[in-house]
Design a protein that fits this description.
Blueprint lengths: L6 H14 L5 H11 L8 H7 L7 H13 L12 H14 L6 E7 L7 E6 L9 E8 L2 H20 L1
Helix pairs in contact: 2-5
């Protein structure tokens, strides 16, 4: 998320996701999934999130958010031959259709340590809670690191073009 959207926006979106799919919201999402099949291979992830209000309030950041979601198609996942994008859809679909219905904690991890989108059951990731979660974790780079890398790549392209 780092190079695409601002740090504050990342926190805001993670907060929206974790409230919507957390202990207080997971059963409502299970019912909505049963009725409307929100997370499906037939629906773009961007539209699924738009439908349930998982998007930044700021229009510029919203566009960046949806662009970021599209880039997940280029991310690997913890499942062979499944892109990060498809894995996110599968993860939410699984969490909302296969019991036991545990809340989903959406988190991020360092891309340099693991470039894959991951999804795992039965974790207690919150130090202050004994609640078990399914954890969806998305690789990211800090925005400053990502911007420096992009600037360095642009500089290399310009130098190459001059030759």
């Amino acid at each position: 998320m780092g190079r695409m959207i601002q740090d504050d926006t990342t926190r805001d979106v993670l907060d929206l996701l974790n409230k919507r799919f957390g202990p207080g919201g997971i059963m409502e999402m299970v019912e909505l999934q049963k009725e409307f099949d929100i997370f499906s291979p037939n629906h773009p992830l961007e539209q699924s999130f738009r439908l349930i209000g998982i998007e930044p309030a700021d229009r510029v950041e919203r566009k960046r958010w949806y662009t970021f979601l599209g880039t997940l198609k280029d991310y690997p996942s913890d499942q062979p031959n499944v892109s990060g994008y498809k894995r996110v859809v599968q993860a939410f679909r699984q969490a909302l259709t296969q019991g036991p219905y545990l809340p989903v904690l959406v988190s991020v991890h360092a891309m340099k340590e693991n470039p894959k989108v991951t999804f795992a059951d039965g974790h207690t990731p919150l130090i202050y809670s004994t609640q078990s979660y399914r954890v969806l974790s998305i690789p990211t780079k800090p925005s400053q690191v990502a911007r420096k890398e992009l600037a360095a790549m642009a500089k290399q392209r310009r130098a190459k073009a001059k030759k």
